[in-house]
Amino acid sequence: MKLDLDTLVLRSGTHSSPSDGVSLMEAVSALAGEPWSNRPSCTSPVIAAYARSLNDWLPDNARQRLKAYIPRLVGTAEPDLELRRAFACADAAVRVFAPLAFAAAGLVKEGLKLGALAPVDRESAHSAAESAESAEWAARSAASTSDWSAAESIRSAADSARSAARSARSAIESAAMESARSAAWSAAESAQAAARLAARAARAAAESAERSAADSAERAERAARSAAFELLDRLIAAAS
After folding, report:
1. Do residues 223 and 167 share a domain?
2. Shortest CA distance to 161 belongs to which of 104, 220, 102, 109?
3. CA 73 to CA 180: how far, in whole Å?
4. Residue 236 dihedral angles phi and psi, to the nearest 5°
5. Does a structural domain hold residue 6?
6. What phi and psi, each to the nearest 5 degrees, are found at residue 159?
7. What is the pTM of this model?
8. Per-residue pLDDT tens listing for the chain (240 residues)
9. Is residue 5 part of a domain?
């Protein structure tokens, strides 16, 4: 398949052939000359897991920004970097995406606590996971005492914290197994889930808030998307 990035329209999901649609990773497989797949061997498994989730999460218009990444994802399969990338995903999930979700839900104190944690690595990952889990339970407690309109965004914040904790624990498991692929994939997918839930918390807040507060929540959703792209850039640049 010859790709024309000017006319290509990226779609969510997986597709049996180009005539059925093209997702980000399927486009990468085509550009690399590999068999049609959303898991091309030329791309880092961690990046591919994150990119698949990002492709499916973004709305149609925003998804097209991913076209610029198609050539950049070719040749990123470097096994020695997978563990570093797994921890980068965990770090973003705990210290970026979960705090965005908490801020959107109005739980500023818990969000600041997560954002102030040390970067997530081998030494700090256990503590980061525990902090994310503590934040999750604090959010669930807050949701149980909030009115219906506020509770939805708070529950989304709690879910984001849970995904962040899972990402950190998956990175720990990956380190213990010396960058086992399944754990690294899980770290990437959990990080993307945390980003998606941060945006969901912002949307829920926007739907239930007064206009001035809704504007702030919409900015938080845009921030979550921007941070998601920034993480993709970091994962690609891990070799530098």
Report:
1. yes
2. 102
3. 21
4. -70, -35
5. no
6. -65, -35
7. 0.91
8. 677 888 999 999 999 988 889 999 999 999 999 999 999 999 999 999 999 999 999 999 999 999 999 999 999 999 999 999 999 999 999 999 999 999 988 899 999 999 999 999 999 999 999 999 999 999 999 999 887 778 888 999 999 999 999 999 999 999 998 888 889 999 999 999 999 898 888 878 777 655 455 666 677 788 899 999 999 999 999 866
9. no
